[in-house]
Design goal:
There is one protein chain. This protein is α/β, with parallel strands linked by helices. It has one domain: NAD(P)-binding Rossmann-like Domain (Rossmann fold, 3-Layer(aba) Sandwich). The chain has seven helices and eight strands. The protein has an eight-stranded mixed sheet with strand order 1-8-7-6-5-2-3-4, sandwiched between helices. Helix 1 crosses helix 7, helix 3 packs parallel to helix 4 and helix 4 packs parallel to helix 5. The radius of gyration is 17 Å and the shape is globular. The structure holds NADP nicotinamide-adenine-dinucleotide phosphate. The site of NADP nicotinamide-adenine-dinucleotide phosphate (NAP) has 33 residues, from helix 1 and helix 4.
Length: about 260
């Protein structure tokens, strides 16, 4: 049920910085590459951005889900089956995107996952996977896409989390990976202030399949309702759209958005 979020019932906060240079081409930005487009926030963002006329590269591992989404959206969509932890797959997907659309104007680093568990007893494979997808996957995409993004004077949007700013129990490694995204965003801003815009979107809990990755049954039981009562993914998509379409005179560098728990 996209586009049904009652905005008035949600909290959001924005950090807007003055842009050190103008982006005269901003209104013509058209080509957006979204990682993790097969589900949740990525799929909701794809729907909203497509409705606004953007051309989309839909990246994820689940080709079937991407094909269903692309069929729903119609033209201006490119399905790119890709595991972001595999550098060669990222290279091939980005190349396909550039071959079809010419350049990348916006990269949305959204693919990510979290396993809730305690540190003691936590599974090392799950720790590695979180680092591989949430950090190395973002770095893989940046490494491959930066030349095209710079040429386009483009925009990088990184999906952080409240866990980029706070540490929560039972998700220490996830929090570490999301803290890393702030460092990545800040380093882009510091090194390329006149070449790229960068935005970190940091939501609290969002009602997506995200929590279903958790293999610890007790943790799943503990957190499932909490996520189900979270923000709707369309609300995050709306913030992404807002960051992309913000005025040429400033860059929205950070958006923190929390569920309004007082609305129960
Ligand atoms: N839900 C929340 O409460 C919440 C809160 C704050 C931030 N976030 C962040 O928001 C982002 C999206 O999460 P979501 O809530 O929308 O979760 P979701 O519904 O589970 O979607 C996760 C997406 O990531 C993709 N993905 C996972 N591993 C991948 C890999 N190795 N290569 C490529 N794609 C991969 C998945 O696609 P495939 O499985 O098809 O590859 C899927 O499209 C994540 O970065 C998450 O950390 C979520």
């Amino acid at each position: 049920m996209p586009f049904h979020s009652p905005l008035a019932t949600r909290h959001s906060s924005f950090v807007i910085r003055r842009s050190p240079f103008q982006f005269p081409h901003l209104c013509t930005m058209k080509n957006i590459l979204i990682t993790g487009a097969s589900s949740g926030i990525g799929a909701a963002s794809a729907r909203m951005l497509h409705a606004k006329g953007y051309k989309l590269g839909l990246m994820a591992r689940s080709t079937d889900k991407l094909n269903v989404l692309a069929a729903e959206l119609g033209e201006r969509c490119l399905v790119l089956t890709c595991d972001v932890t595999r550098y060669e797959e990222v290279q091939s997907s980005v190349q396909q995107f550039v071959d079809v659309f010419g350049q990348i104007d916006v990269l949305i680093n959204n693919a990510g996952l979290g396993y809730f568990d305690t540190l003691v007893g936590g599974k090392i494979e799950e720790w590695h996977t979180m680092v591989d997808v949430n950090v190395k996957g973002v770095l893989n995409c940046l490494h491959v896409a930066l030349p095209s993004l710079i040429e386009a004077r483009g925009h990088v949007i990184n999906l952080g989390s409240l866990a980029s700013h706070q540490v929560f129990p039972n998700s220490g490694v996830y929090c570490a990976t999301k803290h890393a995204l702030i460092a990545i965003s800040d380093s882009i801003r510091l090194e390329l202030p006149d070449k790229l815009r960068v935005t970190t979107i940091s939501p609290g809990s969002v009602d997506t399949p995200f929590i279903n990755s958790t293999s610890n049954a007790q943790m799943l039981d503990q957190y499932k309702d909490y996520f189900a009562a979270g923000l709707r993914p369309e609300m995050i998509a709306q913030q992404i759209l807002h960051a992309i379409e913000a005025s040429a005179g400033g860059v929205i560098s950070e958006i923190i958005i929390r569920p309004n728990r007082s609305m129960k």
